[in-house]
Amino acid sequence: MNLGAIAERYVATENKDRHGDKLTTHSYMPTYSRVLRRHRRECRLLEVGVAAGLSLRMWKEWMPDSLICGLDCSDEWFTEDLQNQFQIAVGHSNVPSARAKVQRFSEFYDVIIDDGDHNPSIQVGTFHNLFPILAPGGTYVIEDIPSIDAWRHEYIMLGEQYGANVEIVDLRSIKGRSDDVLAIYTK
Length: 187
Known about the structure:
By secondary structure, this protein is an alpha/beta fold. It is about 35% helix and about 20% strand. The chain is built from eight helices and seven strands, in the order H-H-E-H-E-H-E-H-E-H-E-H-E-H-E. It has helices at about 5-10, 30-35, 55-60, 80-85, 95-105, 120-130, 150-160, 170-175; strands at about 45-50, 65-70, 85-90, 110-115, 135-140, 165-170, 180-185. The chain has a seven-stranded mixed beta sheet with strand order 3-2-1-4-5-7-6, sandwiched between helices. Helix 4 (about 80-85) links the parallel strand 2 and strand 3 (about 85-90). Helix 6 packs parallel to helix 7. It is globular.
């Protein structure tokens, strides 16, 4: 099934703070369909920023044979159902202890998506912490980059520092959102 159609079922409608905004607030589905298509079969995916787990559920439906894991700084919105369906760790994504927690689920991941703190300095710290556990050939995505014009060089340098290919996908013109930007790294 088409990822965009699946994403429509995982939109936060009752409480916008519960997220599920990859299709509504942001314009990410066509890009995700393109860059993650090769990972659909038996992938190990880690998403930073779980909230109520809408995107974890979306990924699981699109990648049914995959291990879908999450990392969040708080378990405030976790339901028993969510914790029964997914491996989820609680910790700050830019701290080494969080990396150790998610490595209990899988030593390496094929896909890592950072939809956690939307602060460039924390996104960069999270990248330094988690990129080493991205499997060879893996894809690392940073979502919701604010101030890309001021930080573009930093995001490009991250890829160069780790020998990764980097693509900056600027979708700000589609919905007029200042943070509708992705940085995609391929190891």
